């Protein structure tokens, strides 16, 4: 039974939110495993380091460990999932289940990012990792299409780790596999002490090869990280970018010091906001922000959902997109992220529609394919 979408001026119910088509640009493959899959794979490969071997207990451990307020502690939870993602069979299973889970949540377009260099402990080479993941993504899409459900289009982004020295190699891998479901390149990991400009050679290579790339910036580190990602490295999108609000003021006061929740700001307050040069450049150039509210709360990049910069930046008409980041660690989904913003930040259907269209406009997908999803899938569902 299909749930009828609400009118554009109403706050949708959880059931209506779940039925809406969604677009997801920032989702880590190794951050979205099913807890039972981790247990199964650990048993298959003989890994005995899991902190729990019962599904609900393991899910609790991931969420509680990630909910620390520290990006470094948050990232340490990935040691457990990476330990069981070292064979082609494991990578294929994880990718397939990821696509199935997203489709069940209403996602119609997804970009799944992962770092091939983190999956070599079992003897695979980089190309074998990419092909194993691609196989799982394809299987997932085909299974969804064969089930009669609304289809999902899924692509991957190959991530280089900013603390390592393989970014040029991963950039070349990206270009080599653009026909294997790979849509682009990303760089991730702890920001402090590892500026994106250290990997300038990789970004210059990608631009010469006309390849798309995004950069994690402005999450744990501030405006200099964003500036380098854009002006030195040429990022097409910003992963997170929440610290961009550090470049906004209201009557001479940083907006982060204004006590009024962003959802309650009046039109006069919004009109009085002054953008610094970097924020103005990001908005004028329509550089997409891949924002992940729940994850940002866990890493301390935002204090609450109501005070998360996504609402202010959306109201100021930055090109904001809504994402999950790591569904396992944050115990979230696209429906969950949308529901939080509706319940705690006053979002209505029009806001959800806008970030969905923004994501598709910003996707690393050919223009005609993006347009088809917007016109044939998103608009009919949101506009009634």
TrEMBL record:
Named cofactor requirement(s): Zn(2+)
Pfam families (alphabetical): A_deaminase (PF00962)
Reaction it catalyzes: 2'-deoxyadenosine + H2O + H(+) = 2'-deoxyinosine + NH4(+); adenosine + H2O + H(+) = inosine + NH4(+)
Catalytic residues (positions): 219 (proton donor)
A GO BP annotation: hypoxanthine salvage
Site (Important for catalytic activity): 240
Binding positions (substrate): 28, 30, 189
Cofactor, how bound (note): Binds 1 zinc ion per subunit.
Entry-linked InterPro entries: A_deaminase, A_deaminase_dom, Ado/ade_deaminase, Metal_Hydrolase
Residues that, per the record, bind Zn(2+): 26, 28, 216, 325
Sequence ranges assigned to domain Adenosine deaminase in this UniProt record: 21-379
GO CC annotations, alphabetized: cytosol
MF (Gene Ontology): 2'-deoxyadenosine deaminase activity; adenosine deaminase activity; zinc ion binding
EC number: 3.5.4.4
Enzyme class: hydrolase
Keyword terms of this UniProt record: Hydrolase, Metal-binding, Nucleotide metabolism, Zinc
Keyword Coiled coil: no
The keyword Oxidoreductase appears for this protein: no
Family, similarity comment: Belongs to the metallo-dependent hydrolases superfamily. Adenosine and AMP deaminases family. Adenosine deaminase subfamily.
Record function comment: Catalyzes the hydrolytic deamination of adenosine and 2-deoxyadenosine.
Protein name in UniProt: Adenosine deaminase
Origin species: Ornithinicoccus hortensis
């Amino acid at each position: 039974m299909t749930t009828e979408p609400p009118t554009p001026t109403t706050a949708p119910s959880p059931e209506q939110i779940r039925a809406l088509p969604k677009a997801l640009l920032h989702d880590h493959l190794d951050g979205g495993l099913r807890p039972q899959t981790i247990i199964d794979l650990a048993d298959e490969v003989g890994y005995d380091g899991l902190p729990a071997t019962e599904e609900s207990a393991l899910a609790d451990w991931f969420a509680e460990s990630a909910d620390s307020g520290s990006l470094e502690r948050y990232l340490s939870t990935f040691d457990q999932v990476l330990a069981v993602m070292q064979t082609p069979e494991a990578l294929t299973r994880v990718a397939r289940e990821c696509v199935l889970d997203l489709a069940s949540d209403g996602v119609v377009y997804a970009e799944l990012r992962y770092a091939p260099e983190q999956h070599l402990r079992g003897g695979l080479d980089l190309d074998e990792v990419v092909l194993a993941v691609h196989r799982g993504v394809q299987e997932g899409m085909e299974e969804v299409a064969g089930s009669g459900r609304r289809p999902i289009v899924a692509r991957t982004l190959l991530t280089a780790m900013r603390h390592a020295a393989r970014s040029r190699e991963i950039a070349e891998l990206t270009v080599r596999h653009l026909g294997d479901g790979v849509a682009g390149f990303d760089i991730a990991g702890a920001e402090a002490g590892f500026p994106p400009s250290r990997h300038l050679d990789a970004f210059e290579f990608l631009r010469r090869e006309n390849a798309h790339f995004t950069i994690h910036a402005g999450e744990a580190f501030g405006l200099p990280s964003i500036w380098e990602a854009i002006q030195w490295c040429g990022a097409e999108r910003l992963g997170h970018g929440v610290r961009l609000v550090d470049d906004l003021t209201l009557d001479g006061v940083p907006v982060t010091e204004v006590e009024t929740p962003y959802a309650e700001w009046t039109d006069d307050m919004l009109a009085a906001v002054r953008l610094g040069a970097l924020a103005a450049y990001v908005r004028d150039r329509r550089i997409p922000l891949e924002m992940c509210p729940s994850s940002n709360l866990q890493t301390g990049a935002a204090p609450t959902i109501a005070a998360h910069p996504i609402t202010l930046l959306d109201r100021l008409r930055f090109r904001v997109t809504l994402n999950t980041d790591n569904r396992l660690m944050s115990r979230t989904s696209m429906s969950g992220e949308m529901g939080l913003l509706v319940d705690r930040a006053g979002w209505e259907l029009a806001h959800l529609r806008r970030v969905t269209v923004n994501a598709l406009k910003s996707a690393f997908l050919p223009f005609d394919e993006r347009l088809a999803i917007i016109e044939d899938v998103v608009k009919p569902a949101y506009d009634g």
